[in-house]
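[job 0412] stage=fold_complex status=start
inputs:
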Amino acid sequence: MEETRIVNATWDVSTFKYRIEGQGLTRMLSGMRDAKLIGIKCSKCGTVYLPGSFYCRKCHIEIDEAIEVGDHGEVMTYTVGYADVRGNPLEEPRVSPMVKFDGCDAWVMGALEGVKPEDVHVGMRVKVAWAEERTGSLQDMQYFIPE
Amino acid sequence: MNRKIAIAGYRMKAASDLVTTRERLTFELTRGLFDDLGIDRDHVGTTIFATNDFLDGRTISNVFLDPPAGVYMRDESKVEMDGLSALVYACMRILSGQYETALLVAFGLCGSQVSPYLHVEYTLNPTYDRQLGLLNELSAAGLQARSFLNKFGYSEDLLDEIAARNLRNAALNRDQARGIKDASAKDIKDSSYLYEPLRELHTYPATDGGCAVLLASETKAKELTDKPVWILGMGQSIESYYLGERNLYESRSTREASGRAYAMAGIDKPEAEVDFAEVSSLFAQQEPILTEALGLYGPGDAEKAYAGDNGIAGSLPVNPSGGPLGAHPICATGLFRLNEAIKQLRGEAGKNQVKKAEIGVVHGQDGVCAQQNTVVVLGI
Ligand SMILES: [Zn+2]
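[job 0412] stage=fold_complex status=done
writing structure:
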């Protein structure tokens, strides 16, 4: 008699509701329609969050000062991926940096275009390539390109 | 601590595929441990599970794991985290004075039954990070590795050295799922990139594994074993969820956690007082990041350490067991580090045995790029 057996199973978690704060992400998204990056600044310690947050991690107080940060910034770190997030091989390696935009404390991840993987380096200056037609979605910030 | 707590015994098991069920693994680990100690389930005061519902394929998965652990008609609780967090919880239960013993059970079957990376994808913020489609456990680790190498001016060769040493050590250790006998840096470099600068052999293997550990009060521990290993200090700390709000080249939360653990253990100079470390480094770069955060060597000294000081025969061995590059049973990995430290302190580590083992420090982590960290100091 077989001792154990593998059976296939699935989780049906494809749709669920998830309420989000208007303070951070939606403010960022509405700014993106105007090709602007809007973060939230802590009134106490001055930390600028992007996407914004309704509270400061460090001070643990409610914050709501919207502040525009630059759409130019510096590559803080990067990785070159050979597969997508589900592990499917990519045709071309994909460069994904984390960028610290001017006037912002958080690093933001995105895709970097217009430069060969071997030419990317930490400290290089990049800017946002905005979509022509912007709808107030994350897709407005298409990718980063060298400054 | 107002009571002394010891580890009386443990059982552990890992492979790429254990060809077992969650219930059977739980049963065999706990039954085996009780037999080792000459006790029965009646001797267990309380039980704490460390498993993950997503990986177990059921929510509140302890409801089906309790009976095979001998918890029928007894009390149990669970942490959906690494097993070292469960250990801290179990210690608190003993410290309360309500219990003389506490059983820990932890496992993950990601080698044979579920993708290890998927659960990390589902820890991501669904409205931003997940939408971005760029972040998963591997790409995050790639960002961390690049940040670390760049900060201190190291080349990717350092990652190869770290992985080679771990896989060599793991090959000597029968409790590991993966090892490469006499692995060289070149063997590592020959493996392909997943997310630059990380290669396949810089990353943990998908692992089936689990363990059971029995903690006991001082009196009870001395009844159960001639070789109790004492818990001298514990500390935990957590940092921001967002990778972009941390300096990825360091682990501030591990530094905080170790500060608390050392203070509890009365350790002022960890680099001089700690004999060895077992850290949950899931990717090659995490070993030096964590070791530095544990205060065992200074920032920027990693290259020097990997040139000699931290091998099995060195003055301050780090992961003499081979570490999580040899096996990463999610949820059990921190306790695997604990069990490997117990072997060292008892002089039972065989070919992985370090020269001096009186004080050891162990580390466990949760979250992307070690967001939450637990540090435990052990002694004999
Ligand atoms: Zn603040």
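[job 0412] summary: Strands of chain A lie at 37-41, 48-49, 65-69, 72-83, 89-101, 108-109, 125-130, 141-146.
[job 0412] exit 0
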